[in-house]
Amino acid sequence: MVQDPLNHVIQLTRQGAVCTLTLNRPASLNSLSLDAIKALLIQLQSLKSDANVRALIITGAGRGFCAGWQLDESGVPGLPDESFGVRQAHLMAEYFNPVIQTLHDLPFPTVAAVNGVCAGAGVSVALAADIVLAAEDAAFVLTFTPKLGLVPDLGATWKLPRLIGWARAQAVTLLGDRITAQQAENWGMIWRHLPGQELQAEAMRVAQRLAESPKGMGLEVRHAFHEAQVNGLATQMDYERLRQRELLDSPAFNEGLKAFQEKRPPNFHGN
Domain-by-domain residue ranges, the chain? Predict the structure, then answer.
């Protein structure tokens, strides 16, 4: 576990091979202050190199998952003659964007447990997870454009059209309408919604199942689906062929095949 003075805003807990990162600023619905985004990046970078972690849950304390970027925060570092926009762009390059990129680069699978409000940058953090669960009273809100005159950021303009289609992505961005958890599931934006009192237990159950998978498969699957977004059919099939050539010779496949032949569950703890 990372020992850092910023740990109070991002709490890390461990249950076996599953780690949980909790955004812990409930008074502000876990808005992403500079301290919070720094702490989140520190924890993610540390977990990335932790061989004992096999799955990660990200959730929020209190009534919300994340209310987004705390844009009105005072004391944002920068030169005296730099504009607010220039300073924020520096912070995006140094902290905010690396958080999303690190989530995409983690070797293990991730689960977002969205409890309550999920707005702005919080939507980007949630959608960076491999599997997104949401409480039935949760809502996703993108108010960048109609309320602030901004475009969605932290990868939202890249991710949303891929999940819900161009027309829906354009409409919810321009109108800023709330997307309910049920609507998000119906649109394919999240995996499923469920009663709030069941959310954390279900997130842990899913994460524990994921933790039983072979090491590195979170990143492997993420890369495969990303390549499919940019490749033609023939190129993608060749990508799959090359990955299977390597994976079929891996200890994980050998264990899986042996377990299948012996009619037992595979044990990938060493693979």
Answer: 10-211, 231-261
Token output for 195:
């009663």
Give the pair of three-digit tokens for residue 271. Answer: 């693979």
Look up the CATH superfamily of 10-211: 2-enoyl-CoA Hydratase; Chain A, domain 1 (3.90.226.10)
pLDDT in tens, 98-150: 999 999 999 999 999 999 999 999 999 999 999 999 999 999 999 889 999 99
pTM higher than 0.90 for the full model?
A: yes
* pLDDT higher than 70, residue 226: yes
Angle formed by the axes of helices 97-105 and 34-48, to 10°? Answer: 20
Contact, 41 vs 95, CB < 8 A? Answer: yes
Identity of residue 160: L
User: What is the largest distance, in Å, between two alpha-carbon atoms of the chain?
Assistant: 69
In sequence order, what DSSP letters do the residues of 41-66 get, joined into one string?
HHHHHHHHT-TT--EEEEEESTTEEE
